[in-house]
Structures are given as C-alpha cells and as structure tokens.
C-alpha cells in the first residue's frame, strides 16, 4: 500500500519475494523449503497426469514404482527406500517388557550376592551417585539377592533364572546383552527414549524410521504394528500411548497401526451393515477427490498422507480379517504357544499374531507387556509376569526357527531400564522390592543377523555399574538399523534445520561384536 | 602406505606395524594427520612420522600405552572434548584400540613381526564386494515392465547395484502363479532372493526359478510344490537356503537338493520329510 516514491525500507525484498530473496533465513531452511516445494509440485503434477489408478502407485512408494519412474534412463538413479547395504533382518519383533524387569531375577546372574543378604551396599560401589526419589531417603541400602535360582543352559552356557524354564530351552538362540544403560530414571522418559531415541515426546519410533527408510514389503498391511497385551496382574501399570509408536515429524503413514484385542482388531475398519465394498469404494473416491482439490490449493504433503491412510484402511478391510483368522493354524501351534494363545489380547495370542505378521512381511511388530515395575513384592509379581510370558516367548522363537523365519527376523526382548541391587522397602529372603536403576540393565536379541548363543557386556558384582562394554540405547538403535541394512548416520530427515536421526547427535556405534 | 608396499616386497612376513597398526592410522587418522593436513604438527602416515610426534611432543611412549598421548586420546570417552578422532568422526573399534595397546606395550617397534603378536585380535576377514548379480541399473526399464506384467515386485536388495533383486509377492501372493514366474525370464539372472511363500506356484513354475542362475535364497513355504518339481532347481549353483515349510516335499526331494554345491539350509517343517537329528531343519551339506 505504500506509495511508489516512498523510500524502500531496509528490509524490503522486492514486490513478490521468494524465500530466496529474504535475508537472515539460513540456507538450510531455504533448501528444506525448496525440497518440500518441489515435492508438492511433483506430487501435484503426478496426480493430474496419472489419474486415480496411478495415485495408489505413486503413494504406494515402493521401490518398483520408483524404478518405473526411472524408466529409460541408463543407468537409472538409485531409488530411495533401499537399505544402504544388504540387510540381515527383513523384519523385527520387539517384545517390550514395560515397567522394566529386574536384571537380577532374569539374565544377570550375581552368585556372590547370596552371601550378602541384608548387608549394606558398599559406598565404593555407589560412589556417591544420585539415587531416585523413591529410595533416596531410605536409611539403609540393604542388598537383596535374587531369591530365584539360576542354571546354565545350552552349548552357550547362558545362566538363566528358574523363572524362564521355557525360554531356557532356546538359550542357544539368544544373544544376551548385559550392559545396556540409559540416562532416564523414570518410566515415561525411559520408554520414550528406548522406543524413539529421545526422552521428549514427538520423535518417530524405531518402526516409523524403518517404514520411512525401507517402505512396505506388503502394501496390504501396515509396515509397523503395535499390540498391547492383557496383564496377568496390575501393579504400577505404565501408561502406554501412541507417543511410543508415532511417526513424529515423519509423514503420518509411518506411525504404527495398533491392533486391538477381540473381534474388531482395527476400530471402525469394517463397513457398517448395508454398506457394500463398492459403496465404500465410491465414497473413498469422493473423499479422495475432495482431498486432492485441497492439496492442489494448499500443497500440504500431509493431505497425501491422509489419502494414503484411507487407501490403507480400505486394503486392510480384506487383509486384516485374513490375518486375524487363526482357524487354519494346526493343532501343533496351540501345543506350542499354549491355550492362552486362543484368547485375544493375551501376550501368547500377540506372539502368535507377531509370527503371522512376520510371515506376511510386516517389518516391525512391537508387543507391549506391562506390570514389570516391582518396587515391592517383587518375587511374587515377577513370577506371575514370567509365567505369563515365558512359554509364548519360547514358542515364538521356536516357531520362527522351525519355519525358517528366525534367520531374517530379529527378536528383541527387554524393558526401559534396570533395577537396584538394594531392596526398596521391606527386605526378607522371600520378599523385597527394587527401585529403578538406569546405570545397567539386560536385554536379549535372537535371529536377524545377531550371533546366537552369545553374551555381551558385563556388570560389576552388584550389577550396579557396567564393568565391560557399555551399550547406550543409541548403540542399540544403531545396531538394529544396521541389521536392517541401514547406516544410522545416513538415515536422516530434515526437520527444524537439522538432519534428524533415530540416534540423535551424540556418538552412537553399531555393536560389531554381536553381528553374526 | 608407501612404506607398507616397500616392506612387504622385501620380507616374506610383514611387520606388525605394517600389517595391523598402519592401516588403523590410515583409516582413522591420516585425513587430518598426514601429508595434506598436519593438525598439531602431527603426521601418522609413516612409522618415522609417528615417532617424530606432534608440536607438543611425543605421542607414543615405547612400552607404556598409558603414558602415550596417542593412546590416551583414542580411549577417552566419546563425549570428551579431547577425544580422537574428533568432530564426530567414527571412533576406533575395541579391536583397533587393543592393537595399538599391545603394539606400544611391546616397544612400539617398526620391525617386530606379525607372528610376535599371537594374542592380537584376529583381523576381520576382508570380504571383497562379491557381485551377486549383474548391475541392474542399465535394465531398470525392462525390470519395471517385467514386474508389471507378472504382477510382482522386483526390488533391488540394497543400494549396492550388484546385490541383485528380491522377487517379492507378499502384497498379493494369491496372484503369483506359474504363469507369472514365466514372465520373469528376461530378468531371471538378476534375482537373488525369491519370496514365494503362500503363492500359487506349483512344480511346473519351478522351471522358471531354475533359470534364476544367481539365486541365493528361495522361500516356497505353503506352496503346492513337491519333490518332483525340485529337479528343476538342479542348475542353481549359488542357492544357499531353501524354505519348504508346509509343502508336499518328501525325503526324495531333499535327497535331490543335496547335489546343490552351496546349499546350507533346508527347512522342511510340516512336510513328510523324515526328520533327522534336529527336527524341522535339514542341513544338506
């Protein structure tokens, strides 16, 4: 509105400035804007040129489609959505033990503690480290040895607690990691850190990064599936939410689809009575057309994500009933997983579902089992949790192996941190509790290119500090990505002016020693 | 590395420095401490230069790793300001640190032989990048056309162009049948991994698979193939793994597979194959 003879202000950038004309905008942000803008134009043109038949292909974002796009060029440019190098793992099943099982009663055998019942934790071990608020005010820190016995199993000679008689039978498949550590001291930040690489909500989960980096192997099912399990007991239950399996700043189609227990595994996916598939298709075409018009106007890529979500839901109307129909499972399946596997929502049922998802090419399945947070009454409660999960865990490993799937399916078992050697609250030989302990904890992996029958990392005699080969959660993440053929330093997404990574900006390394 | 070449020429057995220590410097250090950049006046591109040290003094104290500045720097915590390599470059692996440690502890000598360090961590076998299949890129258009005609996906296995293609059918296994496989023949030599579980493939379709001369892995889980069809796979000289779970294959079929030179794993869960020592898995070699 200013008059033409008015002196131009010092920040005047021309009548129709583009972002390139603006001063003080960092070059990185300009480039990010250009990238998004280019993508908008590309997708916009693509939609117009290809019509609806082509849209699904374009949004299906699979490598062959990209190959088609490169037709005629020789040599063709390398398409995106490919591993950086040949992967060992085609898929992973992550058994997430939310609340954090104690390492003392599971995988980190500390025989010397048996002689130290109710003795004070030596000050030299703690070394003045801060304790959590729940036990910092205790007058004493009395040592609580595991009340459960351990024995060695397999050629590997893994020490396994008597709580896991079934898993012990597949000890030779396990690569036990005893030296994980984290900075987070409470559940929510700790679970976020191990599922998304960051204690703050809003980052993409591991499965979302894999979906972003590798695309789908099966277009009819989600690339990333989450299941929560019925709890055999309810004490100190952790809140789970889609923060833990979100796509964060990645496009929304990379978020997990959470399968529910029961007759309606994906809510609202079935057509209402009286609505046939053709009517649904016509309706979706109409909605897609409206979304397309909006996209043409505002060019927001999230609109295309929305369209692809509608299309995925439509495809899941046929793929999910087939997936969740267990009627064709032979009797041997039920003998293996146990009777609880017939009850939707149990951990056993979810393990069987995970095998069926793996067979169908779903890249990342995460099963949550809660109630491992045993601040008190630990011996009883951990036994209940182990009884619920031990046999299905063994069954899953065994089933994957006999079907030839274990070689390229990575199975991961673990919680978000460790627990204290000293008892929280009352200490009796058969009753005690353990507080949170981020300085060391145990996990295991099996299959998927990890060395079977291996043990890696060591803690001190009190499983208080790490004695050898510390593994930060970043290292765990770098290793998981590596098994999928991805270099964690190259799998990036530009956001807020940074090349964001699952492993963040602090040093992270692949644990070479455990690679088969 | 010029010194390394000279040394190996003159001697039957290389020195430990040449074979194990110099490659670590070359990989991690010489970019900043070499002929191009000489940060802190330090060059690590020859034994003499290592011993010459930096502006601030020696970096190696013979016989004492703990007193060697070089060793101290590479073993600092990764978040330490003084850690080397700096600027977020990958740090030394444990084996590499161990090699520097035992070399310095043994006197940091130029002429000690490889055999004088029997406890050194074993070198990682150098896996040459063996091409699994021809470069697919010149044939991208053909691959796309074949995949479309056959109704399957043909996906490069990785960004390494000679890693071959995966034949993928998981989206619609019921649509992949013998006819679809026949259409793959123009690109058969590129396929290294055939995922055919739960497809409609039968014995007749295995002829097309037999033409995939670079195939490493074949999954026929829950298909109608039988022992008779496996005869068509006799030409697969590189096949390493075959999954026959819940197929009609029997002992005769497994016997036939034993002729394949590279085959290491055969899965026969849910078949009539009489199970040897380890159930569900037959090691055919």
What would you say about this model in short?
The complex is a heterodimer of chains A (516) and B (285). Chain A is of the alpha/beta class and 516 residues long. Chain A contains 11 helices and 17 strands.
Describe the protein's architecture and organization.
- The complex is a heterodimer of chains A (516) and B (285).
- By secondary structure, chain A is α/β, with parallel strands linked by helices.
- Chain A has two domains: 44 residues; 398 residues, Alkaline Phosphatase, subunit A, CATH 3.40.720.
- In chain A, β2 and β3 form a beta hairpin.
- The longest helix of chain A has 34 residues.
- About 6% of the residues of chain A have low confidence.
- With 285 residues, chain B is of the alpha/beta class.
- Chain B has two domains: 103 residues, no CATH class; 146 residues, Ribonuclease Inhibitor (Leucine-rich repeat, LRR (right-handed beta-alpha superhelix)).
- A seven-stranded mixed beta sheet of chain B has the order 1-2-3-4-5-6-7.
- In chain B, 26% of the residues lie in helices and 8% in strands.
- The longest helix of chain B is centred in the first third of the chain and has 13 residues.
- Classes of the chains: A alpha/beta (516), B alpha/beta (285).
- At the A-B interface, α2 of A face α6 and β1 of B.
């Amino acid at each position: 509105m200013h008059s033409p003879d008015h002196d131009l202000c010092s920040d005047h950038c021309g009548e129709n400035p583009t972002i390139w004309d603006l001063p003080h905008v960092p070059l990185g942000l300009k480039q990010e804007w250009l990238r998004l803008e280019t993508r908008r134009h590309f997708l916009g043109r693509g939609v117009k040129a290809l019509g609806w038949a082509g849209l699904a292909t374009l949004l299906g974002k699979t490598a062959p489609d990209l190959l088609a796009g490169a037709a005629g060029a020789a040599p063709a440019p390398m398409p995106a959505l490919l591993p950086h190098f040949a992967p060992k793992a085609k898929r992973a099943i992550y058994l997430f033990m939310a609340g954090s099982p104690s390492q003392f009663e599971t995988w980190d055998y500390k025989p010397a503690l048996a002689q130290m019942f109710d003795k004070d934790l030596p000050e030299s071990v703690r070394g003045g480290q801060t304790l959590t608020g729940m036990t910092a005010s205790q007058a004493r820190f009395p040592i609580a040895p595991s009340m459960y016995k351990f024995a060695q199993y397999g050629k590997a000679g893994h020490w396994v607690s008597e709580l896991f008689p079934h898993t012990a039978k597949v000890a030779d498949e396990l690569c036990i990691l005893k030296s994980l550590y984290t900075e987070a001291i409470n559940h929510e930040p700790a679970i976020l850190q191990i599922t998304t690489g960051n204690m703050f909500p809003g980052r993409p989960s591991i499965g979302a990064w894999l979906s972003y980096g590798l695309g789908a192997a099966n277009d009819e099912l989600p690339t990333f599936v989450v299941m929560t399990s019925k709890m055999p007991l309810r004490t100190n239950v952790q809140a789970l939410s889609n923060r833990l399996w979100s796509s964060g700043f990645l496009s929304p189609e990379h978020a997990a689809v959470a399968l529910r227990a029961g007759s309606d595994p994906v809510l609202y996916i079935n057509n209402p009575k009286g609505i046939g598939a053709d009517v649904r298709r016509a309706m979706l075409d109409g909605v897609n057309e409206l979304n397309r018009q909006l996209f043409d106007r505002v060019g927001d890529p999230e609109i295309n994500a929305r369209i692809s979500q509608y299309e995925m839901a439509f495809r899941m109307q046929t793929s999910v009933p087939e997936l969740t129909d267990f009627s064709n499972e032979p009797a041997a399946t039920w003998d293996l997983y146990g009777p609880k596997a017939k009850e939707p929502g149990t951990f056993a049922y979810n393990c069987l579902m995970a095998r069926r998802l793996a067979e169908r090419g779903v890249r990342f399945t995460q099963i949550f089992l809660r109630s491992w947070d045993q601040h008190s009454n630990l011996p009883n409660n951990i036994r209940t949790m182990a009884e619920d999960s031990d046999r299905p865990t063994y069954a899953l490993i065994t089933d994957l192996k006999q079907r030839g799937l274990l070689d390229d399916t990575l199975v991961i078992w673990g919680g978000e941190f460790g627990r204290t050697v000293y008892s929280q609250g009352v200490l009796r030989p058969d009753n005690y509790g353990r507080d949170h302990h981020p300085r060391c904890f145990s996990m295991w992996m099996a299959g998927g290119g990890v060395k079977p029958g291996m043990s890696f990392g060591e803690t001190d005699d009190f499983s208080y500090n790490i004695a050898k080969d510390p593994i930060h959660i970043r290292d765990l993440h770098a290793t998981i990505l590596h098994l999928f053929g991805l270099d964690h330093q190259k799998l990036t997404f530009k956001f807020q002016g940074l090349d964001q990574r699952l492993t963040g900006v602090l040093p992270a390394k692949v644990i070479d020693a455990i690679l088969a | 590395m010029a010194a390394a070449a000279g040394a190996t020429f003159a001697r039957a057995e290389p020195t430990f420095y040449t074979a194990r220590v110099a490659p670590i410097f070359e990989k991690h250090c010489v970019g900043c401490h070499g002929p191009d950049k000489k940060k802190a006046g330090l060059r690590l591109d020859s034994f003499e230069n290592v011993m010459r040290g930096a502006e601030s003094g020696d970096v190696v104290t013979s016989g004492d790793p703990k007193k060697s500045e070089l060793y101290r720097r590479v073993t600092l915590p990764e978040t330490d300001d003084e850690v080397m390599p700096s600027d977020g470059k990958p740090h030394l692996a444990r084996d590499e640190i161990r090699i520097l440690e035992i070399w310095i502890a043994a006197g940091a000598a130029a002429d000690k032989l490889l055999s004088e360090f029997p406890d050194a961590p074993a070198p990682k076998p150098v896996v040459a990048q063996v091409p699994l299949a021809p470069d697919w890129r010149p044939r991208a258009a053909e691959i796309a056309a074949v995949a479309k005609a056959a109704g399957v996906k043909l996906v490069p296995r990785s960004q390494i162009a000679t890693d071959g293609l995966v034949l993928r059918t998981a989206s619609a296994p019921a649509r992949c049948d013998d006819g679809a496989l026949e259409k793959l023949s123009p690109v058969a030599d590129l396929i290294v991994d055939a995922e055919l579980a739960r497809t409609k493939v039968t014995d007749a379709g295995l002829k097309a698979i037999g033409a995939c001369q670079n195939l490493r892995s074949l999954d026929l889980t829950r298909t109608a193939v039988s022992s008779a069809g496996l005869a068509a796979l006799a030409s697969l000289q590189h096949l390493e793994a075959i999954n026959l779970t819940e197929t009609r294959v029997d002992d005769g079929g497994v016997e036939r597979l034993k002729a394949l030179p590279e085959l290491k794993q055969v899965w026969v869960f849910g078949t009539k194959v009489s199970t040897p020592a380890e159930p569900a898995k037959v090691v055919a070699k």
